[in-house]
Amino acid sequence: xxxxxxxxxxxxxxxxxxxxxxxxxxxxxxxxxxxxxxxxxxxxxxxxxxxxxxxxxxxxxxxxxxxxxxxxxxxxxxxxxxxxxxxxxxxxxxxxxxxxxxxxxxxxxxxxxxxxxxxxxxxxxxxxxxxxxxxxxxx
Length: 139
Known about the structure:
The protein contains 8 helices and no strands. The chain is an all-alpha fold.
């Protein structure tokens, strides 16, 4: 698994060894959520929590491999149930190109997972096409 190096008992805050100061009192709910989610052990983060953090580029070094493993593990169920964690997949697919270029193995892993999926929504398919076009030399 790609995420074997991630100690899921630790939080993003612990893994990064960086403590954010408390959010300002007038912070948005999103900012407050990011601060709170960084303090939770990785093992306690839901797919939705990972989507929110990844979508804000928080903890990518630790969360992308966990999310990629989750997406791979759940891909076979997609054919049986017709449901897939589109929001997490979208958050992962739409990370900036340099993220994937710095971890080509992760990009190839995601591409292989995508190949296992069927009946993607049009908006996810567009993100897949953009991901594959931008990284065609790596995949």
